[in-house]
Write a structure and sequence with these properties.
By secondary structure, this protein is an all-alpha fold. It has one domain. It has six helices and no strands. It is elongated. The N and C termini lie close together (5 Å).
């Protein structure tokens, strides 16, 4: 069972707890639907969509960081480039090509992530883990840094925490 008994749970802790719960539920269902879902006569399609979205979300973040590192290197080389420095000019050209490819890969990944998250949000959940997966994606996708302490983010994290706690009380993973 995942420990969600903390009275005050941080943003990252909550997302980790929800991630663990969704992953465990999805893994259990991969081997067969949970008893509650079997009795209801359906499986939870949200969990498969969530898994695809989360993989795309992570890949998009990784590509963004790669592109940002290349952009920083490119600006540093260009800033220090003096007329007549051919080797540095070729370094700039190589970095520009790598940067362009990285930027294109990041934009393609962001497009894929957006398609998947819209499909996830547009699919009706059929269980509490499905609702948790959808809400987790809203909180994770909407992670906008400085504004996380402003409405509606604390409220959404509170709702996600409540759902995880309620789910665990009725269904041990």
């Amino acid at each position: 069972m995942i420990d969600t008994s903390m009275a005050s749970i941080s943003r990252r802790d909550l997302l980790s707890v929800a991630l663990a719960l969704i992953t465990a539920t999805n893994a259990r269902q991969a081997g067969g639907a949970s008893p509650a879902l079997q009795e209801a006569g359906h499986s939870e399609p949200i969990l498969e969509l969530w898994q695809k979205w989360f993989a795309a979300h992570k890949r998009c973040g990784e590509l963004c960081l790669r592109q940002q590192r290349l952009e920083t290197k490119l600006f540093e080389i260009e800033r220090n480039l003096h007329e007549g420095e051919q080797d540095k000019a070729s370094d700039v050209a190589d970095l520009e090509i790598a940067y362009s490819r990285a930027l294109k890969a990041e934009l393609n990944a962001a497009d894929e992530e957006e398609v998947l998250v819209k499909a996830l949000w547009g699919t009706p959940a059929q269980s509490v883990p499905g609702i948790i997966a959808k809400l987790h994606s809203v909180v994770e996708y909407g992670d906008i840094g400085d504004f996380l302490d402003e409405t509606p983010w604390p409220e959404l994290r509170s709702i996600l925490h409540d759902l995880v706690r309620i789910n665990e009380a009725g269904l041990e993973i």
